[in-house]
Specification:
By secondary structure, the chain is mostly helical. The chain has five helices and two strands. The protein has a two-stranded antiparallel ribbon with strand order 1-2. It is elongated. The relative contact order is 0.20.
């Protein structure tokens, strides 16, 4: 297992789930009494921080986190805690950009691996 690839996979999963949350919140923005979704993704962020520190078990911790487990961390918040629609649209844009940046980085990583393998 390549820890870089695993960290990017987890980052992609985080960006996707965060974008889904923002999209769901945008859809509920004008619904009276609707609750908004929130998540802090503590387990994923802790695993990424462990990888940054160079902890030996970081790769295993990241592998244990899936999109399904991330979705399990989503909570409903009260209507009083509703974020503005503009904030949610901004969050959706940020997560889209994060997803694209991670896929670009992953493409470069695989390109370098291919060059190393081919010996060019």
């Amino acid at each position: 297992m390549d820890i870089t690839t695993e960290a990017v996979r987890l980052g992609l999963d985080l960006a996707q789930v965060r974008a889904e949350i923002a999209g769901a919140n945008i859809a509920r923005a004008n619904v009276p009494g609707a609750t908004m979704q929130r998540a802090d993704f503590a387990s994923a962020l802790d695993a990424l921080a462990a990888a940054e520190r160079g902890d030996a078990d970081a790769g295993t911790r990241m592998q244990a986190i899936s999109q399904q487990s991330l979705r399990g961390e989503i909570e409903q918040s009260g209507a009083d805690d509703a974020a503005s629609q503009d904030d949610q649209v901004a969050e959706l844009s940020i997560q889209g950009l994060a997803y694209r940046a991670l896929t670009d980085g992953l493409s470069r990583h695989f390109g370098l691996m291919q060059l190393a393998i081919s010996g060019k």
